[in-house]
């Protein structure tokens, strides 16, 4: 009878550190694998575009160290997906280097390290654009055009279980993955142990965010997921947390458009008929999940393209008359930018906090607060131009011409008489899928012996 | 009449991928959940009106019985993290739901 126990200490390794107490309880529970995903597209397109991490290396290293030492001590495999937030090649290389450094630092006995890359060459994608199987858009997007591909700086493919299974079959003790579906990081070990696809993918789905499937709310605590025969159990490792029917079923909805389907390279986990049962105060058993294999393997692609350099300006307003006419003030400043730079070739954005800065057009409250803060973003192809666009769009708020204003010495307050350089602006150019014959094609694997 | 925030345990919003934001309203009491459903306080039409959006921007609207939850998802006008996007994670878009009046 196939069985497996996996602990997950962190839902996005590196973004915030794991909590050591529940992690050690999880390790003491005798897992067969220790696994976590380290990526997310929640962080926006800038890290992928600029090939950087949004997480501090110290936090990445700290969690990798805790997991590596525990995994080697109890001699079970450690699996990490989506290295360094984005899962680009440089992030995989960095995690591999960290693992090697940690092995040396702690004088660990030799072990086999496997890793794979996820970056996709633009020309590979271009070949598909005009083919019988175009690069299909997700979430209402059109099929990928050459123009959008040309506007893209970097692409990663979202791995399913395939490269993980290959590396597990090759006997790896530690696996560092490029960009991956969260659930594949856990599903692959379960399939390696012979569980059903339905249980394997559900196990992955429920473990991917660690203690987000437990209550009361408390992130970065370890949870233990298991398959024993059929069905999946999930248990909170923090003594004050519980995995309840409500918390586990609730997690099935998290960060997804609907709670019924999880799409991965190679198929779909169907959670429509899931049945939840509380089997002890901290554990819920889930049965009834199904896995529907895809007729054709389509791999999700994420791509980011640079829009330009970016500066940020800050201005604020207290005069109630000016607040009542804030749209006119902004229109004035925009007009000054148009006068200098024309209508196109840059972006200029205003967020008006105290009015609708957080929600924009979705904001139903129409009465502004007694003071406003205006965040101005200027984006252009060069730093010099972006700075000047942003400076003009910010400073001209000061000179806005309102007919009845009493305060004629300056229309806004400045915290700084300058604009601040921000990260370059990128946008998500690809949220698409690419058909492949070989599910390993986009994910070249490598192994190396570490230590000794 | 009761406020939704007095009836639900969790009211949240978050990215569902880079092109959508999803909203979860989760109840702990199945009876209250069913009463809220029957009240029709939350439907695609009421949500569209609350956020002043066309119903076609609602990608999914689900009454999810296993979790006693109502869930809907809207398309973003531009992908998350584009210049000018005010909520990269989509995490603060739920506030108008708190004050929704429910006839129970």
Give an account of the 3D structure.
The complex is a heterodimer of chains A (452) and B (104). Chain A contains 13 helices and 20 strands. Chain A has helices at residues 20-28, 46-50, 57-74, 89-105, 122-129, 146-150, 162-169, 184-192, 197-207, 245-251, 320-324, 326-341, 383-395, and strands at residues 3-8, 33-39, 78-85, 111-116, 136-137, 154-157, 174-176, 223-228, 232-236, 261-264, 267-270, 275-280, 283-287, 290-293, 298-317, 346-353, 372-380, 420-421, 425-435, 445-450. In chain A, strands 12-13-9-8-1-2-3-7-4-20 form a 10-stranded mixed β-sheet, with helices on both faces. The longest helix of chain A has 18 residues, at 57-74. By secondary structure, chain B is α+β, with helices and mostly antiparallel strands. In chain B, 24% of the residues lie in helices and 30% in strands. The relative contact order of chain B is 0.30. Chain B has a single domain, classed as Alpha-Beta Plaits (2-Layer Sandwich), CATH 3.30.70. In chain B, a hairpin with a 4-residue loop joins strand 4 (58-64) and strand 5 (69-75). Chain B has helices spanning 4-7, 30-39, 44-50, 95-98; strands spanning 2-3, 10-15, 20-26, 58-64, 69-75, 101-102. Chains A and B meet through helix 10, strand 15, strand 16 and strand 19 of A and strand 2, strand 3, strand 4 and strand 5 of B.
Largest interface: A-B, 47 and 44 residues
Q: Determine the structural class of chain B based on helices, strands and strand pairing.
A: alpha+beta
| Uncertain parts of chain A | none
Mean pLDDT of chain A: 96
Work out the radius of gyration of chain A.
25 Å
The amount of beta strand of chain B, in percent, is 25-35%
Q: How would you describe the oligomerization state of the chains in this entry?
A: heterodimer
Shape of chain A: globular
Number of domain modules of chain B = 1
SSE pattern of chain B, N- to C-terminal:
EHEEHHEEHE
Task: Please state roughly what percent of the residues of chain A sit in beta strands, choosing from under 5%, 5-15%, 15-25%, 25-35%, 35-45% or over 45%.
Answer: 25-35%
């Amino acid at each position: 009878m196939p069985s497996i126990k996996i602990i997950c200490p962190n839902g996005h390794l590196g973004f915030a550190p794991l909590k050591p107490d529940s992690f050690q309880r999880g390790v003491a529970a005798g897992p067969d694998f220790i696994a976590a995903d380290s990526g997310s597209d929640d962080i926006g397109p800038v890290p992928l575009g600029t090939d950087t991490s949004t997480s501090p290396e110290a936090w990445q290293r700290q969690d990798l160290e805790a997991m590596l030492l525990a995994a080697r001590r109890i001699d079970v495999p450690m699996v990490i997906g989506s290295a360094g937030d984005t899962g680009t090649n440089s992030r995989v290389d960095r995690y591999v280097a960290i693992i090697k450094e940690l092995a040396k630092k702690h004088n660990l006995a030799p072990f086999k390290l496997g890793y794979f890359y996820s970056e996709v060459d633009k020309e590979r994608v271009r070949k598909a654009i005009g083919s019988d199987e175009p690069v299909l858009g997700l979430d209402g997007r059109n099929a990928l055009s050459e123009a959008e591909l040309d506007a893209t700086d970097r692409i990663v493919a979202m791995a399913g279980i395939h490269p993980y299974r290959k590396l597990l079959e090759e006997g790896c003790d530690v696996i560092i993955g490029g960009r991956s579906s969260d659930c594949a990081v856990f599903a692959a070990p379960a399939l390696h142990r012979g569980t059903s696809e339905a249980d394997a993918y559900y196990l992955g789905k429920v473990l991917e965010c660690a203690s987000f499937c437990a209550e009361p709310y408390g992130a970065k605590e370890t949870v233990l997921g298991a398959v024993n025969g059929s069905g999946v159990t999930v248990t909170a490792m923090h003594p004050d947390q519980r995995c309840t029917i409500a918390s586990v079923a609730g997690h099935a909805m998290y960060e997804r458009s609907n709670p019924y389907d999880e799409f991965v390279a190679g198929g779909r986990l169907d959670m429509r008929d899931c049945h939840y049962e509380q089997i002890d105060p901290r554990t819920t058993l889930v049965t009834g999940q199904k896995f529907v294999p895809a007729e054709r393997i389509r791999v999700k692609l994420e791509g980011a393209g640079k829009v330009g350099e970016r500066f940020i300006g800050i201005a604020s307003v207290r005069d109630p008359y000016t607040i009542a006419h804030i749209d006119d003030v902004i229109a004035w400043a925009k007009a000054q930018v148009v006068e200098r730079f024309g209508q196109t070739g840059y972006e200029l954005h205003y967020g008006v906090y105290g009015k609708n800065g957080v929600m924009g057009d979705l904001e139903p409250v129409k009465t502004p607060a007694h003071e406003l803060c205006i965040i101005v973003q200027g984006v252009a192809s060069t730093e010099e131009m972006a700075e000047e666009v942003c400076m003009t769009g910010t400073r001209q708020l000061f000179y806005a011409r309102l007919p009845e204003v009493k305060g004629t010495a300056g229309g806004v307050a400045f915290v700084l008489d300058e604009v601040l350089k921000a990260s370059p602006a990128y946008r998500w150019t690809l949220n698409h899928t690419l058909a492949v014959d070989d599910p390993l094609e986009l994910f070249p694997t490598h192994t190396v012996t570490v230590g000794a | 009449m009761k406020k939704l925030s007095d009836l639900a345990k969790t009211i949240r919003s978050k990215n569902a991928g880079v092109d959508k934001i999803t909203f979860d309203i989760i109840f702990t009491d199945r009876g209250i959940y069913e009463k809220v459903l029957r009240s029709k306080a939350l439907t695609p039409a009421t949500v569209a009106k609350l956020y002043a959006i066309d119903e076609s921007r609602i990608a999914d609207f689900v009454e999810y019985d296993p979790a006693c939850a109502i869930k809907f998802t809207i398309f973003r006008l531009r992908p998350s993290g584009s210049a000018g996007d005010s909520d990269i994670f989509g995490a603060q878009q739920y506030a108008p739901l708190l004050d929704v009046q429910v006839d129970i």
